[in-house]
Design a protein that fits this description.
By secondary structure, the protein is α/β, with parallel strands linked by helices. Helices cover 33% and strands 26% of the residues.
Length: 237
Amino acid sequence: MLEVCKISLDMNARPVLRDLSLQVPPGLNIVIGPNGSGKTSLIRAIAGLIPVKSGRILWRGQDVLSTKSANRAQWMAYLAQNPPVHWPLLVRHLVALGCPNSKNPPDAVYRTMDDCGVLHLADRRIDQISGGERARVLLARLLAANAEVLLVDEPTSSLDPARQLDMMKILGKQAKKGKTILCVLHDLPLAARFADNLILLDFGQIVCEGEPQTVLRSAEMQRVFSLKFNASGYLML
């Protein structure tokens, strides 16, 4: 299990995460919360991309933050929100970058592209495909790493509803395979539909966690957003 143990994080002398503890079980764990609540900082801290002020992050009892980055990359993979691609690579070559110790795309990479619905784009350049196709290609690169922990920041951002659904279905299938997924999401109906566990953040702290329907209808949810939602994540007017 992935464990976050009392981590605190400051950015520009401002507290972002405050003594936050969290146990992340296998499955699709979705983090929600208002802008500035610390969602992205949380998964970036777990990935070791930003230093924490205090606390520990454990994967199966091993300290993630004190582990060499090469070894950490075998445990977990991270997908940023709308990450840049700096070179006009072929799709198959870009996805293969996610597969460690490989100069040529192995069969597993092609299977990953097939799982993400981008196998037909294998010989296209990444800068010559649509934004929705690009998002699925980058997800395929993430999955090609075959990491046990997937850290995903706003994977449905800027996608149309059909592509958003495709993206969440792919993550849902990975969760059913036993992956531990921590995903930041703003779309509450999608979170309600796909989350195994829903985590509500506010001012760098977890204020509610559990089954999506329970969290979405909680008093904490109403307080944090100053709005009321139903069990499906839709705003109640």
